[in-house]
Amino acid sequence: MRQIRYRGHRPDDLPTLIRLIRTELMPMSHTVSPDDPAVLAELPDRFDSGRTIVAAPEGGPPLGFVHFGQIHSLLHIDMLVVDPASRKHGIGLELMRRAEREGTLGGSLMAVLFVDDVNEKARRFYAREGYEPVRHFPDLKVTQWTKPLRSEGQ
Known about the structure:
Layout: E1 2-6, H1 13-25, H2 37-48, E2 51-57, E3 64-71, E4 74-82, H3 91-105, E5 110-116, H4 120-128, E6 132-137, E7 142-148
Parallel strand pairs: 4-5
Antiparallel strand pairs: 1-2, 2-3, 3-4, 5-7, 6-7
């Protein structure tokens, strides 16, 4: 059985999340390398600066995670990744909806995220979930996407 929980319940959470970032997110980035020691050294602090929800088998290491933060009425989805072997089971969707719900409960009116231009699967996923591209940054090769969030009861 799969559980959704906050990061930190298991000692292998952080190493597993960093592995997922190195293997799944960083290779798509135009601005960082999976072997950049400065970027890797900053990841633990980056996780501490927001909230991270993981999907994991009962008592097991994370299969995927979403990391996000809130600034006033804005929910910033920083990272969402699911291990390739665990995709196509609704994990990414469940994680995203949990982050959006937390944002809504915290007073966020809008969600914002950035997608690397080469990440076509992510672009399709976010479009299906109601996100719209609003601004392209050609030098960084990313696009900003937004989605209005509904308050509870609407």
